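call fold target=Protein required for cytochrome oxidase assembly
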Amino acid sequence: MPETATRPLVDPPARSRFAQWLPTAVDTRIRVFAWISFVLNVVIIATGGAVRLTGSGLGCSDWPVCVPGSLVPTPELGIHGVIEFANRTISGPLLLAAVGVLVLVWRMRRTRRDLFVIAAVIVALVIVQALVGAFVVWQELAAALVGFHYTVSVVIVCIAATFLVRMRQPGGERVAAAPRPFAILTHVTGLALAVTVFVGVLTTAAGPHSGDEDVIRTGFDASILAHVHSWPGYVLGTLALILAVSAVAQRLPQRGWTIALLGIIAVQVIVGVIQARNGLPEILVGIHMVLAALSAATYTALAMNLRRPVR
């Protein structure tokens, strides 16, 4: 009997089996985790807005625990503690989803380096965002930190949207997929969107919804900023309309994204006007915040489709 026949069969190590389980191409596992990551990053903007708009920003007065000596809110904190802690709780699944995407594309890090880098950036920014949230609490809802906290969330949503677009396309060299004038107009629209969101963050930071009844905003005049915020908003709406009409007239493959962008911005403008004329009701301010993130994500998808893979 040959010597090799007497050797016992040895199972491959668990580490090797796990590596073989990881996908070598984009599959359902990656798609599901990527969408969960994107949705949770939008949801945490909504819950973060709820924290601020209900005056629950200091519902938990410490971080990473809720209050000294207790990880969870105590009965004395009331509903504000529950709302703030619920927002913090979402950070756990959000980080797990981001890490899950990174792990799933690990075996593809050479063939699809773009997906691996995007996933790694999202994980890094989620961790940074958690640390910024800690400083927001430690600094008792300083306006600049609160605004930066929201801005980082919007950036993460845009990067997550980039992953969603790229995972549906093959990797490799990319070439222009739209006429140059249309591409330039798209980038100008992106600049108008960035300015609108930035001024909107300043406006909200100076407004009445500071996150806690004892925190009073000083500095910028919120009523003046509200008017200033509307100017780039109307420019943005006009540019989005021109983009959509141009894409439809030329039957460009990006026309679906331009129509979606125009629709979201139109709703955003309507909500903004209504909330400004009705004393900034909390629910409308929260919707306005979420729509801003979705507008940025939709624009990102449009911009990512200005180029296409060669193959």
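return ok
The first helix runs from residue 14 to 21. The CA atoms of residues 173 and 310 lie 6 Å apart.
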